[in-house]
Amino acid sequence: MKVLIIARPFVFHGGVERATRDLVGALVEHGHDVHLASPPGQAPVAGVTLHRLPLPPLPAPARVLLLAALARRLAARGAWDVVQTHERALGAHVYRAGEGCHRAYLASRDGGPGRGLYHRVVLALERRVFARTPRLVAIARAGKREIQTLYGVPADRVDVVYNGVDLTRFHPRVRETLRRPARAEADVAAGAFVALFVGSGFERKGLATAIEALARLDDRRARLLVAGKGDETPYRALAGRYGVADRVRWLGPRADVERWYAAADACVLPSRYEPFGNVHLEALACGLPVVASTAAGGGEVVSGALAGRVVDPRDAGAVATALAEVREAVTSRPADVVAAARAAAGPYTYAAQVAGFQRVWAKLP
């Protein structure tokens, strides 16, 4: 099929963009004629025809509207079998709601709903996209419920297609070669329990809760590794107030994230709002148990007690208890934990993701 995908440029530290990159590659591998429409900054992609959307530097509200207009014009020009947008844009056959609902995101923030021009523009565009796009795709069951509840969309217009994960890159064997040097780089003792936080946008991802949970653990040797893009300053200060500044390691955004899954014993993701979160699948695929959030779609893939826990992301005590339980399992049954985590990630392949989208496309008129 001749498929046009509308998406922002891919960057290594963005989960939404990384998920799109991997899907595009899988579609090519499955024989589709893939075209990618993206603003400036997108590098060429093997096997893909790139259409650059001429989006100049603009204030955020204008940029959102212009991107939607440019995407709609390109969609109307070509003889596409399927137009699938991963951005809020009209004129597509399918909208993949990879960022969930902006309305729900705003409700999740401590500062309350945003009332600035940017938020008003995004909400207005989101309403139209959900109302007018023939097929909608959520990336978890929770996202489907959210779209139905907040926007009154009938259930039969919304499909769920989970993300895939690279089961070769993210594999338990990374520990064999990467664990010792990664721990040495982070100045972490060989026997210390290590929790890994991965995410850009520290407030939404719940870094404050992860730091407080570390402070509540009855293990002074435990360490927290933080990988991601964001302003570390307030969180370094928070770690200081909790007395754990010397137990937190700041890694910054990392392209070699599998190195840090290898270094860790558990992954902690107390997100306040997360439509899915590829980190869940990547960690599990590496054999790492995950302490996930009830507000994250990725929590749906944490299956079985040995694969991790799913807890209230605003309850640092619950996160600390979950980490302690995971630590006990990792200590007493390490091979079983690795096997359970890996098995939880196993069904989420790119082939399964492509098959899911092909089922959605088959429903188009």
Neighbour order of strands in the largest sheet: 3-2-1-4-5-6-7
CATH fold naming of the largest domain: Rossmann fold
Secondary-structure element order, as H and E?
A: EHEEHEEHHEHEHEHHEHEHEHEEHHH
Number of domains: 2
- DSSP summary: helix tally: 14
Runs in which pLDDT lies below 50 for 5 or more consecutive residues are: none
Round the mean pLDDT to the nearest integer and report it: 94
Give a quick account of the main beta sheet: strands, pairing sense, barrel closure.
Answer: 7 strands, parallel
Q: What is the general shape? A: globular
The separation of the N and C termini measures 15 Å
Structural class: alpha/beta
Oligomeric state as shown: single chain
Radius of gyration: 21 Å
- Tell me the CATH superfamily of the largest domain: Glycogen Phosphorylase B
CATH architecture of the largest domain: 3-Layer(aba) Sandwich
Q: Work out the number of β strands.
A: 13
Measured as a percent range, the helix fraction is: 40-55%
Keyword list:
single chain, 365 residues, alpha/beta, Rossmann fold, 2 domains, seven-stranded parallel beta sheet, six-stranded parallel beta sheet, 13 strands, 43% helix, globular
Task: Outline the secondary-structure elements.
Layout: E1 2-6, H1 15-29, E2 33-38, E3 49-52, H2 60-77, E4 82-85, E5 94-96, H3 102-108, H4 117-132, E6 135-138, H5 141-151, E7 158-160, H6 174-185, E8 194-198, H7 202-205, H8 207-216, E9 223-227, H9 233-241, E10 248-252, H10 257-263, E11 266-268, H11 278-285, E12 290-293, E13 308-311, H12 316-332, H13 334-345, H14 350-361
Helix pairs in contact: 1-14, 2-4, 6-10, 8-12, 11-13, 12-13
